[in-house]
Design brief:
Blueprint: H1 9-17, H2 28-45, H3 51-88, H4 99-122, E1 146-147, E2 160-165, E3 169-173, E4 179-182, E5 187-191, H5 192-200, E6 204-206
């Protein structure tokens, strides 16, 4: 059986269920991925239907479920923080987020700000001049997932769906009249009609936000 890594998923899950966004180790996602990979490798080496195989299978299933729950809980909290900060229009330091979570957060801020700006423009309100609430602790520049089209403001306020891209997608014009250039592993908000088309083509999966 593989050595138990220094990663207490039970403790992290309990903490996430009863507090604000907690502080995770910077390499949490990398370590969680490594834990699951080691358990999968160990299961492949185990004799089928043996007690050891049953034990490893149970460990693997529990680990996958716990990591998934942690991701979902933290994602909902990050969406709430992004929604609040995009309205407050203030810069702030990363609140207990990992590098991967900051990337997700900044993508949300960019999409929310652009959507609000377009809606304000449609209804004749003062437009937001720049992105607000963006975190600035990343060492690498952010990808720009959406290029705004300067033309046509009609039909802007449509429902959007948060997606994670499974493959690169050539530039297309969404129903909101914006050009979208999406790359594998991007996390973006896309109009519902276009999002469903990408999901149907298995080019993306929806990120559920409860």
């Amino acid at each position: 059986m593989p050595d138990a890594p220094e990663l207490n998923l039970d403790s992290i899950l309990v903490r996430e269920k009863h507090s604000k966004l907690s502080q995770l180790d910077p390499d949490f996602y990398e370590r969680a991925s490594q834990l699951i990979k080691e358990l999968e490798d160990e299961k492949r080496r185990a004799e089928p239907d043996s007690k050891y195989d049953d034990d490893i299978t149970e460990q693997l299933e529990v680990a996958i479920e716990q990591v998934s729950d942690i991701i979902q809980i933290r994602m909902r909290k990050i969406v709430g923080i992004a929604r609040s900060q995009s309205v407050k229009r203030k810069k702030r330091d990363a609140p207990a987020m990992t590098r991967e979570e900051i990337t997700f957060y900044n993508a949300l801020i960019s999409q929310m700000t652009a959507w609000r700006q377009d809606c304000h423009g449609q209804f004749g309100k003062r437009q937001v001049k720049k992105e607000t609430g963006v975190l600035h602790e990343q060492k690498e520049p952010e990808k720009t997932a959406v290029t705004k089209s300067p033309e046509k403001k009609k039909d802007i306020c449509k429902d959007y769906i948060v997606l994670r891209l499974l493959k690169n997608v050539p530039t297309f014009v969404g129903v909101d009249n914006r050009n979208y250039t999406l790359a594998k592993e991007d996390v973006v908000m896309v109009p519902t009609v276009n999002a469903k088309a990408l999901i149907t083509r298995t080019a993306a999966v929806q990120i559920g936000i409860k």
